[in-house]
């Protein structure tokens, strides 16, 4: 790992994770609660130009604005998941940009969302967070064009991002076809490792592989180019964990997913970290969310929790035709060396996900 991680360089370093009760995508509202709330809202009928809205729990909204052009729109923000301000800004931004990539889109502009206790957290800390964000947005080749901030009790940061896409090339989570295979671009385990960081069990340098992974852009559409036409469906693995996001994709596509347990990649310390109890509330709520509709309860304890581990800026789960697998893997391997085939798509059955 040659890349240098930007850890705290303030002498009197304030540990950002100690200013909040929960961090990153683990602080997401549980899926079951969100569904309960949204089911009570009377939404208006989508206009004729809406390609994707919130009804399928996809990664971003997509709206057609011209014959050959659609906008991809998303926003994401969360409380600190790491201690170093610049790193937090980078991770929050890579995570927000990811939902554009998960739809197959190209990010074009970003705006910051910021809340912090003015006077309690020093301005130089906030400057670093925004600087980290600006750098990631620049790396994505989008423009950073503004933002909004409020004086808030708890520090939170993120981006609203706009991307563009051809209306016929959107990677919906509802497109998985029977016979397709599943590939994942990043290792899993950021939830348990950052929970260990918050508790002081790990330092940032001890979990550096996971931190670098979270700062990495999921720029798969750009790398695939026209090969992206073959992608049937995609989503990014974030707060609901591998199991939760697979469940949403399986439901939206009306298929069942078979996940090969031993092929799923994890960061090295994940078994130890989970066994030592570095868990978040989301581990439990994600498990409850997927338990009834998968066979997750039958697998080894640590892996059960690892499949429910809430990811922040996790990898893309791509669904591709089996006969294009090799070409797509060859294309991705250089930029995404962690990419693995982790399962396949079957006819819908008793269970939306089968761990084998
Ligand atoms: Co997403
Ligand atoms: Co999101």
Explain the overall architecture.
The protein is α+β, with helices and mostly antiparallel strands. 31% of the residues lie in helices and 22% in strands. It has eleven helices and twelve strands. The strands form two sheets. Strands 1-2-3-6-4-5 form a six-stranded mixed beta sheet, with helices on one face. A six-stranded mixed beta sheet has the order 8-10-7-11-9-12, sandwiched between helices. The chain is globular, with a radius of gyration of 19 Å. The model has no long low-confidence stretch (mean pLDDT 93). Residues 76, 99, 238 line the site of one cobalt (II) ion.
Characterize this entry briefly.
By secondary structure, the protein is an alpha+beta fold.
């Amino acid at each position: 790992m040659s890349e240098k991680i930007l850890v705290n360089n303030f002498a009197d370093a304030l540990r950002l994770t100690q200013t909040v009760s929960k961090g990153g995508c683990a602080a997401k509202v549980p899926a079951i609660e969100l569904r309960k709330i949204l089911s009570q809202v009377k939404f208006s009928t989508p206009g004729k130009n809406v390609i994707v809205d919130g009804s399928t729990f996809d990664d971003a909204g997509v709206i057609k604005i011209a014959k050959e052009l659609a906008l991809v729109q998303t926003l994401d923000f969360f409380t600190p998941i790491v201690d170093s301000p610049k790193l937090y800004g980078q991770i929050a931004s890579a995570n927000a940009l990811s939902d554009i990539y998960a739809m197959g889109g190209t990010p074009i502009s970003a705006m910051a969302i910021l809340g912090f206790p003015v006077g309690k957290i020093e301005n130089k800390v906030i400057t670093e967070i925004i600087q980290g964000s600006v750098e990631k947005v620049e790396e994505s080749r989008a423009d950073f064009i503004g933002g909004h901030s409020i004086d808030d009790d708890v520090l939170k940061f993120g981006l609203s991002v706009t991307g563009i896409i051809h209306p016929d090339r959107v990677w919906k989570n509802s497109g998985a076809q029977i016979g397709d295979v599943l590939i994942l671009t990043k290792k899993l385990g950021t939830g348990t490792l950052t929970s260990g960081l918050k508790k002081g069990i790990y330092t940032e340098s001890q979990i550096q592989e996971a931190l670098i992974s979270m700062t990495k852009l999921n720029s798969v559409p750009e790398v695939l180019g026209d090969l992206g036409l073959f992608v049937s469906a995609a989503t990014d693995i974030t707060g609901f964990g591998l199991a939760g996001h697979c469940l949403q994709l399986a439901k939206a596509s009306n298929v069942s997913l078979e996940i090969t347990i031993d092929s799923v990649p994890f960061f090295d310390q994940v078994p130890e970290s989970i066994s030592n109890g570095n868990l978040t509330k989301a581990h439990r709520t994600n498990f409850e969310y997927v338990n009834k509709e998968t066979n997750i309860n039958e697998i080894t304890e640590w892996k059960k929790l690892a499949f429910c581990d809430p990811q922040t800026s996790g990898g893309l789960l791509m669904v591709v035709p089996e006969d294009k697998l090799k070409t797509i893997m060859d294309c991705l391997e250089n930029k995404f060396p962690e990419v693995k085939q982790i399962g396949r798509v079957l006819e819908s059955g008793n269970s939306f996900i089968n761990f084998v």
